[in-house]
Structures are given as structure tokens and as C-alpha cells.
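Please go through the protein record below and see whether the fold suits the sequence. Record follows.
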Amino acid sequence: MAKRTITVIKGDGIGPSIIDSALEILKAAGCDFDYDFVDAGLTALENTGELLPQTTLDAIVKNRITLKGPLTTPVGEGFTSINVTLRKKFNLYANIRPVKSFVGTKARFDNIDIITVRENTQGMYSGLGQTTSEDGSEAQAMSMITKEGAEKIVTFAYELACRENRKKVTTVHKANILKSTSGLFLKVAREVAKKYPQIESNEMIVDATCMKLVMTPEEFDVIVTTNLFGDILSDLCAGLVGGLGMAPGANIGEDAAIFEAVHGSAPDIAGKNLANPTSVILASIQMLEHLNMADTAERIRNAVADVIKSGDRTTRDLGGNHGTTDFTQAVIDRL
């Protein structure tokens, strides 16, 4: 059987060091992948004059599975977000952000286990119809939700809930005010929910969701929502388990899937062997689950959990005083 080839985008800033960490751990866990290394972001801009070179796009198409470090989009007009571009180009309609409590972090809660399923290509976040008047006194943007897009993401959330033996799906919306767009999303979600009587379905307005996530997060299991709300809520959920360093993300489409660290490229600590690689290690675990390698994924997750719980060679943000390479070795030792 031919070996699986994974496209790898190391990314900017701390990206290369945390991606190397994840790849070493995958190797130690017995994963025999081939890797196709390509560039994007500032690294690609310096090397090729483009943020997203054609060779990178071709590799994503060919290999279908990509592991990605954080990318920097230069600030200023003329540069579109690379992540948004990738999502649109490959129709990566589902963004999956699981957060789970790890004993030993400085998080305020110890019983969190929430998956946010975010529609990834529509809504206000997609940047449709952005205009500013010539005198700069007025700006507009457009939000569009389609019935097909809503149906696809809500069905994805319920199917995920079934697969993962989850008990409840909460649809998050603002249909009381955004009666057209959020209203359509909620209407479709109610229709889809009827097909899954075994799953408890409830709905919640986004502002109430924010409050409840902070006060009683144990009430949540799977959250499904639109693009902009999902962007905000998934970061809030990351804060419940110790921050973005503990949160991975998957972008799933019919023909491609990109797994990533969801935090930034942290240029201030790049090259200093200080970064916590957990986010991208957890993203590689999501990748393994997507490839039906759940046993290997579980072994790596248990090793990471044990390192954090014991405090053995943990990074500064986890209360230790070690670096990326020491943390990586601690995980490998347990494998």
C-alpha cells in the first residue's frame, strides 16, 4: 500500500519549531507518512513574492490532507487573509474547534469538553461586499447565508455528535435581531434537528451563550453556529481550557482538509525555543482521527495529558520553565 503523503506548511514565526515538534511526535507514535513541504505566508512572500504560491495550492489539491503552522498576513490594504482565502478556494465549509480540559494547566475550569462547529465560508466574516465611501465617512459589508450552506454545517455537527457519542447540539444564533440571515440559519437548524431525535437539541442567542460559557460551561457539548459567531465563541472556549495554545482547529471540505494551530505566529518568541507546541500537536491528533487512526491519536493525547499533568518539562505558559524541544521529548518519552 502506498504511503500517505501529507502537505506540510510550516508557517511563520514559531510555526517551523512547533510543526517540527508535531512531526517528531507523529514519527515516535509510529506514523509512517511522507511529507510534502510547501510555503505560505511571509516565508512564501520573501521567497516567491506571493503569499500563496501555486505550488502550495497544487500540493493541497494533490494530497488532500494538510498540516499547517500559523501564517502571518501582512497588515494593510491589498493583502487578503490567507486563512480566509484557503477556506474559500477549497470550500472548507466546516471549522471544527474542540477544547478539552487538561489537568495541570492554569485554566479556571477542569471539566470542559466542548466542540464548536463553525460554518467557514459564509456570513459576515467572509468579507463580502466591503465598501467605504470616497470621503471615508461610511462603510458597508454584506452578510449572506444560504439554505444549502446552513444545512451542510448543521448536518455536519449532528453527524459529528453521533460519531463522537455526544448528547447535545446547541445552535447559536441572533435571529431575534438578524431576522433574515440568522433567522434562516435557525430555521434550517430546526429542520435538521428533527432528523436526529436521539440527540438533545437546543438553541441559544449568541450573547446569552457567551455569558453561559463563562458561568456554566459544563452545559455545552457541541455548538454549531455561523462564521463570525463561531470565530468569537471558539476563542472564548479556548480561554476556558488555558488559551489558544491548547486549542487546535480543523477546516474540512469535500476534497481537502487543513489541520492547524489556531494561535498566531508569535514573532517575538520565534527561534527562541520557548513556544508551547500543544495546539499543533492536538491538530495533528485531529488529522489522525480524520484518517481513521483513532488509536494512535488517543496514545498521543494521553502522552500530552500526562506531560502537562506531571509538569514534566512543560513550557512557561503551562507553569514550567522548559522550551519546545524539551516538551516534545517529554511527550516522546511517554510514547
